[in-house]
Amino acid sequence: MNLELFGLEGIPIVNKGENIAELILKALKNQGKTLEDKDIVLVAETLVSKAEGNVIKLGDILPSEDAILIAKKSKKDSKLVEAIIQEAREVVAVGPDFVITETNQGFVCANSGIDESNVGDGLATPMPEDADLSAKKIREELEKATGKKLAVIITDTQGRAFRVGAVGVAIGCSGIDPLWKRQGDEDLYGRKLHSSEVATADELAAAASLVQGQADEGLPVVVIRGFSAFDTLRNTESDIHPLLRPKEFDVFRN
Q1: Rounded to whole angstroms, how far apart are CA atoms 157 and 176?
Q2: Residue 6 banded pLDDT, cuts 50, 70, 90
Q3: DSSP for 72-121?
Q4: CA distance readout (Å), 113 to 55, 203, 247
Q5: Which of 73, 77, 208, 239 is close enough to 222 for a disulfide, judged by CB 3.0 to 4.6 Å?
Q6: Which pLDDT value is given to residue 52?
Q7: How many other C-beta atoms lie within 10 A of the C-beta of residue 40?
Q8: What are the tens digits of pLDDT across the range 9-55?
Q9: Looking at beta carbons, which pairs linking 135-141 to residues 24 or more positions away fall under 8 Å?
Q10: Is the dihedral of CA 212, 11, 114, 243 positive or negative?
Q11: Which residues, 6 or more positions from 103, have their beta carbon under 8 angstroms from its beta carbon?
Q12: CA dist., res. 254 & res. 191, Å (int)
């Protein structure tokens, strides 16, 4: 399998109400490229949140007593901590430089996924309220405009409990199953697999993150072409939930 990845250049700073699918199509045209059948379009969550008007003005927040206490322990700004709490179902752990939460969407991550990068001073962007729905809208608009069979994945960058550094992960998807259950497939020696499950959407998001970057690259949209399992995983009713481990099976919280 040979994968091709390319970032879309020239996507501007996005404001509330702008149409992401239209911005993608315009960037493709300006770059002399088109979408093809089985392309996977990966979109950074900050772009989606800003287009949907999901932006927090930190200066308008009044910290609660809980936020002030957590801020002292985590050495974070109390207004940011209050925003983290408001975006969370549960505060899982607090350390000297982190606040781990379960977000309202069900993700366990640092700071409820709130991002202060690539946004104006005094602002922060939480995760999209429903990244699956966002992905579905973008996919359907792109498919309607191009006549191609596509998938869309909304990406974020998150740290990992036992490894240093952040990697790209998927927080929303449409058009492709995020989890590839390979039970029944055979290995190189003809033995059938019994428990192999591949977090395909996360692997694709991690690949796209290498192109998107974390600083001033300005490439919030990446197209992946040539993924051989596209047809196997094709699902227009997909969402991200198969990747979320139920709390009762989370051995680190039980």
Answers
A1: 20
A2: very high
A3: HHHT--HHHHHHHHHTEEEEEEE-SS-EEEEETTS-EEEGGG-B-SSS-T
A4: 13, 19, 18
A5: 208
A6: 94
A7: 27
A8: 989 888 899 999 999 999 999 999 999 999 999 999 999 999 999 99
A9: 135/43, 135/172, 135/173, 135/174, 135/175, 136/174, 137/21, 138/20, 138/21, 138/24, 138/41, 138/43, 138/174, 139/41, 139/174, 139/175, 140/174, 141/19, 141/21, 141/22
A10: negative
A11: 87, 88, 89, 109, 112, 113, 127
A12: 34
Q: Which of 84, 129, 138 is nearest to 105 (CA)?
A: 129
CA quadruple 225, 228, 229, 230: dihedral sign: positive
Cα-atom radius of gyration of the chain, to the nearest Å?
19
Report if pTM > 0.70. Answer: yes
Contact 50, 75 (CB under 8 A): no
- Please write the tens of the pLDDT for every residue from 115-129: 887 777 888 999 999
The pairing of beta strand 88-94 with beta strand 99-103: antiparallel
Distance CA(205)–CA(85), nearest Å, equals 26
Run of H or E including 130:
none
Task: Please report the pLDDT score of residue 56 as a whole number.
Answer: 92
CA pair distance 95, 234, nearest whole angstrom: 41
Query: What tokens were used for 95?
Result: 């350390």
Q: What is the pLDDT of residue 215?
A: 56
Mean pLDDT of all residues belonging to the chain: 92
Range 145-149 contact pairs with CB under 8 angstroms and sequence separation of 24 or more: 145/21, 145/25, 146/25, 146/34, 146/35, 148/35, 148/36, 148/37, 148/39, 149/37, 149/38, 149/175, 149/234
